[in-house]
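sorry for the late reply, my laptop died twice this morning and i had to redo everyting from scratch. anyway the thing you sent over, i finally got around to it. pasting the sequence first so we're on the same page, its 844 residues, then the predicted structure underneath. double check i copied it right bc i was rushing
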Amino acid sequence: MMTNLSRTSFTILDDSSPFLASLRLNMPAPIRLRELIRTIRTARTQAEEREMIQKECAAIRSSFREEDNTYRCRNVAKLLYMHMLGYPAHFGQLECLKLIASQKFTDKRIGYLGAMLLLDERQDVHLLMTNCIKNDLNHSTQYVQGLALCTLGCMGSSEMCRDLAGEVEKLLKTSNSYLRKKAALCAVHVIRKVPELMEMFLPATKNLLSEKNHGVLHTSVVLLTEMCERSPDMLAHFRKLVPQLVRILKNLIMSGYSPEHDVSGISDPFLQVRILRLLRILGKGDDDSSEAMNDILAQVATNTETSKNVGNAILYETVLTIMDIKSESGLRVLAINILGRFLLNNDKNIRYVALTSLLKTVQTDHNAVQRHRSTIVDCLKDLDVSIKRRAMELSFALVNGNNIRGMMKELLYFLDSCDPEFKADCASGVFLAAEKYAPSKRWHIDTIMRVLTTAGSYVRDDSVPNLIQLITNSVEMHAYTVQRLYKALLDDISQQPLVQVASWCIGEYGDLLLSGQCEEEEPIQVTEDEVLDVLEGLLVSNLSTPVTRGYSLTAIMKLSTRFSSVNRIKKVVSIYGSSIDVELQQRAVEYNALFKKYDHMRPALLERMPIMEKTASNGPTEIVQTNGETEPSVVEPKHPPPINQPASQGNDLLDLLGGNDVPVIQTTMPTKPASAGGELLDLLGDLSLGGPAPAPAPPAPTSQPPFLLDGLSSQPLFNDIAAAGIPPMTAYNKNGLKIDFTFERANPNPNVAVITIHASNSTEADMTDFVFQAAVPKTFQLQLLSPSSNVVPALNQGTVTQVIRVLNQQKQQLRMRIKLTYTHKGSAVQDLAEVNNFPPQSWQ
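ok and here's the structure:
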């Protein structure tokens, strides 16, 4: 009996026609969207909200499976709300298409909205809508046509745009302003997706600017702007519309109160901004168009109310337009004065916009911006970090020879009190400005010492050799400088760059410190023991870095020819012959050898440095002669080694403190064999003559630096350029970047050509992250040494140098493929070039 009953029940449930249909009719209707929102908002935890959403999604899925047409619209609306909350709603995509195909406007509205939110051109499902959109674009109801235009303009793919561009162009010519404004925006999307369809809309644009409706005018200006930005031909064609645009803008300014378009007392500011942007594009680089719009721009600049943010937005667009077109000088001054007024605004965003705009215009209108210098400097005290950074950058841009003292005073005060994140950029800016506009050498030295005292830990790596070079070349300031630096050492030894410069100067000019010959300030009375105590204190201080200890030990060694306490210096040097620091140990061992085996050469070796020649005026500098301390390249491989050494009597001995062997120690960038793949395969290109290229000669191991005194009886590493008779050449000159090659011949091996690249930058912005790479055919071997910097300064104010060694055992003609990568004005640049015009002397 139980078996018959269960079989009967199964039969009833399986019969779906009358009973289940009535059962479905008796099921409760799904909750409305408003009730769902209210329910979800009552959830106290994320888990509770998730549970509600999952329960409702299950109900919606069941309804979709049962093809319930009655509540499909309501269910999709709820699904869109869940999508806005971040929950998956992709299973409703096909239901949106069904709603779009419905004849009800309410269904179409939700269906098109769902399509815009849930579909995009990456999914093939959207192509199923093409026929529905085409039918709705030809619908008799303007609101249905508007829905189709909005959807096509929002997510139409290039295929859909090609298929439906004709219908959009027809609606653009209609007399219905409601449809024309939507068709204009849809045309913008079509042009972005398929630029070659631009000419299709050209006839329809003739009468767009004659429309009185502001909505149509606004969208028409957007369409014209898009066409002008994408096509130079369209730009030339639409320049004849400048008088008409000027007339529209003038009517907006002079028109009386219109409640329909008024925003804070200004008539349709949105349309004004759009027209100003279009005028900026049309007037750029064109004298006639710029002349036609000068008067209206002056009217907008003088008649716009600045008490409300709406007026400030219009004024900002006016300023940008004035600066971009070929405007009159008086109009440009007016624009900069507007930005000056913005700096006094209480709104931080307006102040930031003003500083950014002034920074862009300071190169072309320097004198006009100078009038607002005091206001700009006041912005350095702002609490907002973005405003402070922009004010700092603009302040450095305003520095010139006339205001250098006043501006440096303000910027040094800012350096004292600013956050650590600003100190590096501020210190670098002070160095560059002082180097360029210093009124005197004493002022220059005082300024850089002030920076080192205040923010020594944040300065650039090349600040120490730059200051040493400046001090060396200022012969009359030696006594003053060494006295100032000695006092600074007594006060603070935590700023390592300052300690390094002070150690170098005391070692070089310690005799002047004892003699009290300083005329610029009252001389101090010190003894030899006091000076040596200070330097020995640096050797044992926990604050001293290995580089600083190297400076200190070398300074003590140099004082052995300037002081009479030679025995004490010998003891100090001998102690560090067993130091755990390999660099310090090597120096001490070699200095001990000087005291013993080469004592007769010690006075000539440690004599005072000659005046150094400077090869870069801004940024990294090269020292022509060095005693090893001007650039701590032996200790820190990231610093560039000195590469040129003039021949002299003690040329071999100059190696002692860091000379010719340094490049061998710091071969940090050897080229990789072509078989290793990667970038060099791209570089070699057709230079490879078949087969893998042999690997370059391996660099000398860095774990055990060579004993520098081993080279005392050898030849100089490089011949003088003039003696070699190899003319320099320009290998690359493009986009403001110029690469020059100079040549030398290595004495120990005449088959090795030493090429020094000199990279210079003639543009107005620095080239950062600069990397030079080179590759040669397989019959050559190539080795790249470290560059002097990765920043090529702007306006040819400095050069980046790098040494290349090429082994050419078969004396074949030299060919090279070079690869350049750098960042310029925020954009990454990469370029390849082939160099085949090497002078015959460089490879024969």
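The first strand starts at residue 262 and ends at 263.
thats about all i looked at so far, will dig more tmrw
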